[in-house]
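Exam revision sheet. Question 4 asks you to relate a sequence to its structure. Input first:
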Amino acid sequence: MKLLRLSALLASPLLVIVVTQTTVTAQSKLGSCDEIKKNTDFLALADRRAELLAESQKLRDDIGNLEKQLPAAMKDADFQKKKKQLDDLEKKPVQTRTGVEEQTRQDLENELKLAKTDTTIEAEKKKKEDALAANKDLLLCVQAAISQLNTPDQAFKTTMSQWFAALIGAVILGFFTLAVRDKRIGFAIFSGETGLQFLTLFSLVIAIILFGITGILEGKELSALLGGLSGYILGRTGSKAANGSAAASPAGLAAFQKFIGDLKSINVVPPNVNLSASSKAAQLVAEPKDSSGAVIKDSDKIFAPVWVSSDPKIAKVDQAGLVSMVGAGTCTVSASFANITSNPCQVICT
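Answer key, structure tokens:
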């Protein structure tokens, strides 16, 4: 009987020890914060976070159950009082115990065997709260480590974005390199619509594909954008085919290349213009010249220079070469074509 009594008295403390050892074992399995910070395996960290979340929830449930048991728990003073009463009864020889005393002894033994005191529950609750706090600290370490890593999906998106950005940059750089090395190619790209349209459409297509890969746009949006872009390209192609283009024909292309090859300088006449309230505008003429200084004939109307005023607040110029007075002062007007700039025409406004 004494063995039974001793097991009853030691049941609750042993339970606390077992729970504590289990918690410590679980934490050691999870590792320290330093070990977590050194871990660069995303999947391992994600598994660690899931384990911590599950264990933390279990600890919270256990703490809640212990709090519910606490109001009905036996006071430690009552436990010690009944324990002393049981000890006094068991000290009496069995032959001298009355029937009531024997029944009381059995009732006390059974009651103490199943009893949990408030002190025992509080100790168990404190152990679980400490374990929960430790889990929270480990969870913060795991989340911090995960935030410094890219998921495989994010890494793929980042890599694709970098490659597509490099591709667009290489194409644009190639266009500018060709334009600098060969004036005819530069003029073909930047003076008309074809080159700039190609750059714009190429960039748009790459951007749409990139948006699809990174998940910014879904299937319906991608289909709508690509369909609209295809319709625009086909519409432009059909319009040019219907209207015809002199520059697209072999003869037109040859004339264009010959003109650009012959062009060496541009001369604006007159070189000086005086504008006033009585004469607010004057017509300027840009003459394309070859290497010998002779004016190049332009029967195919290829020469279309861009006119620019150095100060539009003094004088402005339209693309037909008509310069007009805006305010008092002096400025210059020049014409440019195929990366060749004319002599400056001095404009004096009084």
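Marking note for examiners. Residues 126 and 274 are 97 Å apart (CA to CA).
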